[in-house]
Amino acid sequence: MILTVNNLSFRYHSVDTLTNINFSVPKGKITVILGPNGVGKTTLLKCLNKILHPHNGVVTINNTAITDMTITDVAKQISYVAQKNDAARITVFDAVLMGRLPHTRYWTCQRDLEKVNAVIQHLNLSHMELKYLDQLSGGELQTVAIARALAQETDLLLLDEPTSSLDLKNQARILGLIRHIVHDHQLAAVMTMHDLNAALRYADHYIFLKDNTIFGTGAIKEICPEMVERVYGIKVDIVHHKGFPLVVPMDTDGKAA
């Protein structure tokens, strides 16, 4: 397992936000954190890489507790993409190059430049690599943030709503790229998402949060309508279209809402 979480709890101002969180993340898989608004999905993600410090519990990355690691050591193992990323007066190329900072000492080497160029090409950012971040749309800015995380070349990707600012085409492209990188390079990814249908299509494992703790975990294909209803408080049906599962909300008469 790349990541293991044991008995994690977190408090905001003495209010329990997360309690008794236990799960592990294997190589080559995408784990998605699901649940209603305000249940602690983003908080949990931030506890995994020392942005927030749990009140109790241990987070282990590659058999080392993150409490025993420096920030630089954590950054070599874990890359993080926030839900919102601020624009700055730097170019796209330089923003992606910042992902190499944990691996550099005093100067940028040829490998750093090659890695950045490869990521920029994979994400089709070549046409804008000299544009400034404050000239980009929200979706373009989010794509650059994901590019920076990939350039960081870590074993674990943490992504907070990675496609929330992207249009339909770019959602599919980015999630498909993340899946390709995770599966083919035997990395691991943990993502928070609101879109159940995207989760069903692109993730391998799920973690449902409810009442600030884990309601259930398992393989993504095990998600059933009853489970979704108990977590979100709405009746749904799960149908299949061309081999893909789709969550369809139902009204009180049992018809598609």
CATH class of the largest domain: Alpha Beta
What share of the residues lie within helices? 25-40%
Which CATH architecture of the largest domain is right?
A: 3-Layer(aba) Sandwich
Count of helix runs: 8
CATH superfamily of the largest domain: P-loop containing nucleotide triphosphate hydrolases
**Overall geometric form:** globular
Strand order of the largest sheet: 6-7-8-3-9-10
The Cα radius of gyration reads 19 Å
What is the fold-level CATH name, i.e. the topology of the largest domain? Rossmann fold
Tell how many strands the DSSP assignment holds: 12
Uncertain spans: none
User: Would you tell me the overall average pLDDT?
Assistant: 91
Number of domains: 2
Largest sheet: 6 strands, mixed
Topology:
Blueprint: E1 3-12, E2 15-25, E3 29-34, H1 41-47, E4 56-61, E5 64-65, H2 71-77, E6 78-81, H3 92-97, H4 110-122, H5 138-151, E7 156-160, H6 168-185, E8 188-192, H7 196-202, E9 205-210, E10 213-219, H8 225-232, E11 236-241, E12 244-249
Parallel strand pairs: 3-8, 3-9, 6-7, 7-8
Antiparallel strand pairs: 1-2, 1-4, 4-5, 9-10, 11-12
Helix pairs in contact: 4-5
